[in-house]
Amino acid sequence: MRISMNIKLIRSLKCCKKIFKIKNPFKRELVIIVVCSFFYLFCPNAYGETLAIATFGDSITLGYPYFPGQRGNGSRDGGYQPFLEILLQARQGRGQVFNYGVGGESSSSGVNRISVVLQQKQFSYMLLLEGTNDLSVRPVSSQTVRDNLRIMIEKCRARGVEPLVATLTPDWGSRYKPIASKTNPLIRELAEEQGVVLCDLYLEMVNDWENLSDDELHPNRSGYRKMAEVWFAALIQAGVLTYGDIVPIFNLLLMD
Question: If DSSP codes are grouped into helix, strand and coil, which group holds residue 197?
């Protein structure tokens, strides 16, 4: 059934109509198989399947102060989630972003909670942003934050979900936090060690933080919009290919 759906899709793409003009039947069938494989591996939305993305973390993931309540519970509302979903739908055609943020959560609490979230549905990606509360509400070492994020990464992979990890956003209200000096360097190191895509929110937002946050800790609307853009770029890096990304590959296949 998927093959027949793929063939219909291939026929609908102008760049791929050349496939059915290939005279050599062996070459024609080979190209069809290769093209269908690309759709299967890199563009699940081509079948009408939804790209499901979970966002996991504390109040910054939750979307404070714009999200009502203290728990996202899988809502598609939030701070950056609606903006990210718009970007995905504009480029991918489909995509759903689920909010699993919890206000005030520490990374240690996240280690326990993520197992429950991973059972909610089969996600394609998990966007991890945890640790700022560890450094203030319940002061622990930056190494502990790193270790807890590593456990979350391992749990995601055990469930067949690709994790992405973010650096902590700035907190100018608590300048004693070692966000820039210790915690974020360890998160960057962890991402490289584990081979996961790093979403460097701190690097992309710190220079304009006075305009991206109203309380020096949580992003404002502009800040959440910027977060969505940075997460989207990270997802593209992680392999969320779009039709525009795949078309040049098809053209190469069809070269004589």
Answer: strand
Pull the structure tokens for residue 176.
């004693």
DSSP one-letter string for the chain: -HHHHHHHHHHHSGGGGGGGG-S-HHHHHHHHHHHHHHHHHH-GGGGT---EEEEEESHHHHTTTTSSSSB-TTBS-SSSHHHHHHHHHHHHS--EEEEEEBTT--HHHHHHHHHHHHTTS--SEEEEE--TTTTTTS---HHHHHHHHHHHHHHHHHTT-EEEEEPPPP-TT-TTS-IIIIIHHHHHHHHHHHT-EEE-HHHHHGGGHHHHBSSSSSB-HHHHHHHHHHHHHHHHHHT---HHHHHHHHHHHT--
* Domain ranges (residues) in the chain: 2-43+242-253, 55-238
Single out the residue of 46, 1, 11 nearest to residue 32, CA to CA. 11
Q: What local confidence, expressed as pLDDT, does residue 186 receive?
A: 98
pLDDT for residue 4: 40
3-class SS of residue 101: strand
Residue ranges for the chain with pLDDT beneath 50: 1-15, 44-48, 246-250, 252-253
User: According to CATH, what is the number of the domain 55-238?
Assistant: 3.40.50.1110
**Which pLDDT score is estimated for 15?**
47
- pLDDT score, position 11: 43
